[in-house]
User: Fold this.
Amino acid sequence: MMPTATSGPWSQARPPWDRALVVGGAGFLGSPLCARLLDAGVEVDCLDNLSTGRAEKLAPLAGRPGFRFLEWDISDPGCADALTGPYDLVLHLAGPASPAAWPDRPVEILDASSLGTRAALAVAERDGARFLLASSPPVFPGRAPRDAGQGSGADPVGPHSACAEAVRFAEALVAAHAGAHGTDAGIVRLFTGYGPGMRTDDGGTPAAFLEQALAGRPVTVDGDGSRTHPLCYVDDMVDGVLLVAAGRSVRPVDIGGDEAPTAVEIARRVIDLTGTDAPLVFVDGPGDRPAEPRPVTGFAREIFGWLPGVTWPDGLARTVAALRDRPDPVPTGMVTTERVGERRA
Assistant:
């Protein structure tokens, strides 16, 4: 079920945009963002190469006035020039959501965050649009996170180097354009999101628990299950992104859950909600895995008025219900695809 324009603090005023470009709009967060913008009267061009996004997420939007789906890679030469716009808002969501998102595709990760970010910025600068980069928490391979002033400690040739360097470069590029060109550009750092429409095959939390429980397999928890996971429900995350987009902040803004249940608490709740008879099993986990970073949401609260409104137990209940009712995949051709450069009739 898509979030509606009436949910969240962002809905209290007419959005300041007439037309938006959502890059990576067929993903878990991109599709509800497209829906929320359309509900508020904003025309939306949704651009996605469907490498990780799914066309079926856009099926509820097909045929809606003001919506167009463009199957193209923002990193491809000529893509930015063919996006004729003009746009008032460019949301750049194409990139690595987590180190585990594209484990075998490091070049695509780096291209999306370098070539893709540069191209999306060029479109925004051409049209004088607000630009917002959806980034992820800094990646700290093999060690605990440091304070922001101490640097990231990322290893450029380590196991998660592509994701770490992609995140760092994309944020640096956005900040450089804002400083050197005066681009109205910002960064929102998205921590662990979940909810209806999420993928359950990426090995993350709570995704892995949901996949195992719904399939009737043992639900496996690493170590003693004491590792905490800050969770943010998708409706709250959409609110946060749009509130930051409507501002003019260049400083990165954290959007993530204030609640941080342990892995074993999440697993037990998933087992209870799914009604599975499968056991909870503790397995050996990576001994040097760093703690998951916690969002610092004070800036989002004080400046943008953002507050998460869905508790993690309630959010998990909604997610399980949606996963059980998930429709069959949309057949090819049900979502109309246009090449970039084609114009509305």
Remarks:
- The radius of gyration is 19 Å.
- The CA atoms of residues 47 and 70 lie 5 Å apart.
- Residues 1-7, 140-152, 330-334, 341-345 have pLDDT under 50 and may be disordered.
